[in-house]
Amino acid sequence: MVTSPHPLASAAGLEVLADGGNAIEAAIAMAAVLCVVCPHFTGLGGDGFWLIAQPGAPVRGISGVGQAAAALPPLSGPVPLRGGASALTTAAAVDSWARAFDISARNWQGRQRWASLLSRAIEHAQEGFAVSASQRFWHEMRAAEAQHWHGFDAAFPVGPSHQHQRQPGLAHTLSRLAAHGPREFYEGEVAHRLAAGLQAAGSPLTLDDMRGTRAREVTPLAVPYRGGTLLSLPPPTQGFATLEAMGILGEQDFSGIAEGSAEHFHRMVEAIKLAFVDRDRFLADPDFTEVPVQRLLDAAYIQQQAARAQAGARAMPWPQRFRHGDTVFFAAADASGRGAGVLQSIYYDWGSGVVAGDTGVLWHNRGAAFHHDANHPNGLRGGKRPFHTLNPVAFMRDGRPELLLGTQGADGQPQTLVALLTRLIDFGLDPAQALARPRFLLGRTFSDSRDSLKLEQDVGPEVMASLTARGHEVAPIAAHSPLAGLPGVIRFEADGSLAGAHDPRGDGVALGL
Fold this sequence. Notes:
Blueprint: E1 2-4, H1 7-18, H2 23-37, E2 47-53, E3 60-64, H3 93-107, H4 114-117, H5 119-127, E4 129-130, H6 133-141, H7 143-146, H8 152-155, E5 164-165, H9 168-180, H10 184-187, H11 189-200, H12 207-211, E6 216-218, E7 221-225, E8 228-232, H13 239-250, H14 262-282, H15 293-296, H16 299-309, E9 327-333, E10 339-345, E11 393-397, E12 400-406, H17 412-426, H18 431-436, E13 440-442, E14 453-456, H19 461-469, E15 474-477, E16 488-492, E17 498-502, E18 509-511
Parallel strand pairs: 14-15
Antiparallel strand pairs: 1-9, 1-18, 2-3, 2-10, 3-6, 4-5, 7-8, 8-11, 9-10, 11-12, 12-16, 13-14, 16-17
């Protein structure tokens, strides 16, 4: 089974599985296609994170985070959000594919050729694809400011006559990667052209910065939950915030409450608040500063946090800053009960807006997540990895994977994940049911500057009234709103069958053999 936010990507992954490929190989094929057909949310010029699970073995993680340029220009204020000055971290998504491909070959008897896994992506970039409703929405949303983005208009024309998108520059880049391997992106002809194109746009990144980019294999963080184990990735990404929130909820008895009730939402929101306070206080690159994740996920501390969450029926105050971000989640499961769950991102929709020369590669703006004060834990420094929001989740029970899931949405990711996980584990909903149910989003968005609790309207007036009475500043948003994230789920059933779905708020689809 595969699930992704675009039908062409899901089809590419399913094709690999049908050809005898494993879950990692299917995920690489989907990753490449998504870089073509979802250019507003992901691309070769971004980062990527993997959770790789199999029965009877520890879950493996890959953290593909690009580092800041070694030589940075003086900064007198916040990091710019768009343009060359925001393109100040390298992109590790492609090297994360290389790490995953190596695990497949060494440990999963992978037999698919590297070049074949990129073939569908190259085909779609060369021949073109129908522009999705999501891409058109975000293109029109940014049309005015995009006029000032370096190389953007030529690469991504918009208008009634542009229903079909071709990306010849990107096709050539992908073809070079297929022929010469993933390090071509960092050390070969492509790397030289990327560095030249970025510098022409005002980026501080150099060829040496590209050469120094490496994804890392990491040990996932874990917390117990309802007889199983939840896992996500360590800093510099926010996986511990999702796990801390779920640990808090795991200390609470859900047997007496109804799914989707005001009490269900209240408990989730309060757990998120406590986890986000810790996240914003500590999360940074652990190579540069201590991030006390083991203490924050320790059972005694989780119990203290759970007691705080249950201390009263009133909502706790919420003064935190909201982070934007757009991402794609996709996952694959194979006939051997193995799975790979992956998140890729270029941070904001359309990233930095910078297309690097003639490569067709749109660069991310993840560097904008740095704090401008170098003394801050997440302060900008040369060679440092930025605060990251991407955190795929796996749920293991009795030594085998049970759930793989993740979502788009930056600060919304842990919020969407706690809603899904409680529905899937505590309330027993199937993936399609869990994804379709109403969700919440705490904090500011691009369309609402208030620190309100946004609730999809299909929660119902009684739930909204009850939460308002508890002190939440409730703001209704449309049912199945894009603000509520675009998650996907694969569930491994005890009998060996699979269940999967992608969010009905988008164009994604799950496909199975």
